Amino acid sequence: MTERNEVGKIYERPWGNYKTLSLEKGYRVKILTVNPSGQLSLQKHQHRSEHWVIVAGEPTITIEESVETHHANESFFVPKGTLHRIENFTKKTVVIVEVQVGDYLGEDDIIRYADVYGRDG
After folding, report:
1. What pTM was estimated for this model as a whole?
2. Does some domain include residue 121?
3. What is the rounded radius of gyration, in angstroms, for the C-alpha atoms of the chain?
4. Do the beta carbons of residue 63 and residue 78 sit within 8 Å?
5. What total of structural domains would you count in the chain?
């Protein structure tokens, strides 16, 4: 499991960045910032579910077969094992609060199905 000393650090990714606000046994709270034209991998997790609240911007959200653009103050539940992705096709930054819940919360619990940045896993 990832260590608690990562709380407060900003981790840069090709699509933007994330910051862990809280990390305890069984849950983690993050802020995801998705840059204009940024997109996370089309992915699944084996050990965690995710709850998302959009706080800024208009992301395009994929959950299984559904692909729709959404707005601030909308929320989503992504059960573990569910195919999902966040994309930002706008010129404004997207900010999402993500709460992960599960028995393992490591960043290596990502099964990627498609990634525009060429990342495996």
Report:
1. 0.92
2. no
3. 13
4. yes
5. 1
